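Usage example:
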Amino acid sequence: MPSPSPLKIMSWNVNSVNARLERLTALLTRHTPDILCLQELKCEESRFPFESMKALGYTAAAVSGQKTYNGVAIVTKYPISEIRRPFQGTELATQARAIGAFIQSVWVYSVYVPNGQEVGCEKFAYKLQWMHAFGGYLKSAHSPKDEVAVCGDYNVAPTSLDVHAPDLWNEKILCSTEERNALAHIVGDYEDTFRKQHADGGQFTWWDYRDLGFPLNKGLRIDLILASRPLAERCRRTEIDRNERKGSKPSDHAPVLAEFV
DNA sequence: ATGGTTGCTTAGCAA
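Running the assembly step on the lines above writes:
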């Protein structure tokens, strides 16, 4: 068996890859991740900035975009030997929310879980349905022995540690019991790499653009890098790049990072 | 409290 290569994996809800192109190239230069999972591209594949990635030594062979909404991609320094598109050919594939790629013997997914808008509404039901289906996909597609990283915007804060004001958010969208149960179904035996290394709460990955969300640190931790047990054992460092949320024209999400030996 | 901001597309939706 070949010895595993160290991997630095990042995940970022970029909130329009073209509106954020300068920040994206700066991020790749600053962090030089081996793999970067992107969500909310808000463009079709034909408008994805492949050339800008190539100029920095990255390929983005795995892109699943739709116009205006959603869209996920995997950007990497390494060759991609296989691509998987969960739900392909089914109604759930209508929205571009999940893609996987086999890179350096690790299966990496970029996922964008539906927001759900408000507890109990139609979009909320779709969110739960999507999460249930994706959890089922992971279980059927991978054995517990596989090295798998499932990165993305889950649109669920796993526990009250991940919420700036748990009382205000109690049973609200992104924090409801139903969503947390659905998240647990996806997580299964995988590990939340950041939480494993940071026991304390108060570190967030998303802040609303409105109402001084970031300056007042009114955030949630909803962007996660989940790792299957064999991969999680190789994890040595995790981080939220809070600085990326600063300055002019940021995404409303900060990138997250996990390093594996 | 039903506001507030951003992006895509061009008035309204989604987040």
